[in-house]
Amino acid sequence: YFKTEKEHSVIDYNREILIISFNDERTQSASINPFDFSLAGVQNEALEGAGEEVYSFEQRKKIAEEMLTHIPDQNRNEFVFGKEENVKPGIYQLYWFRHVNGVYIFGEFLQVDVDARNGKIISWYLPLIEYSEARMQSSPSFNGNVAKKIAAVHFNGQEMDFNPVLVINKDYPMWIVRI
3-state DSSP helix/strand/coil percent for the chain, to nearest 5? Predict the structure, then answer.
């Protein structure tokens, strides 16, 4: 991908994904799926442009959508566009989040960084998709209000005015509450 013959400088990992960096600043790296050795992401800050932003949100999103092809076919329709964040001058991160039966799957997303000055993809990252929809249970055994009460008792805290959020962690439902 980088058309380099340089040796890697660092090997790291994030949630089982191997990250191979080609310089000490980690501005050029490739993320590798350890099961089939396919690309799970790339970062190349050398592609960053300069000057004024010329690409609109709609254009950046269209550019980033090219990376949806890295999501396995059987899961692609489960990914929903979530948000865009300006992470540094001229660079925007766009996110697609995985949902099954309307419930967010914790930690499964596609992140794409697009340079609004030159329209280039600076990086993209797709963590492992761990479970198929058929292996997930998206119906919890109790509701969010019960989860708030359990958390308040367990942590000896007070319930806050916060709507509990149902997510799926790996293959089981989990409530996120604030106390």
Answer: 20, 40, 40
Q: How many residues does the chain have?
A: 179
The 10s digit of each residue's pLDDT in 67-125 is: 999 999 999 999 999 999 999 999 999 999 999 888 899 889 999 999 999 999 999 99
How would you classify residue 45: left for phi > 0, otherwise alpha for psi between -120 and 50, otherwise beta? alpha
Task: Give the whole-angstrom CA distance, residue 109 versus residue 98.
Answer: 6
Q: 129-135 — which CB contacts under 8 Å span 24+ positions?
A: 129/71, 129/72, 129/75, 129/98, 130/170, 130/171, 131/170, 131/171, 132/74, 132/75, 133/78, 133/100, 133/101, 135/171
Beta bridge mates, 88: 91
Q: What is the pLDDT of residues 43-71, one digit of tens each?
A: 999 899 999 999 999 999 999 999 999 99
Q: Output the pTM of the full model.
A: 0.81
Number of alpha carbons in the 13 Å side-chain half-sphere of residue 49: 17
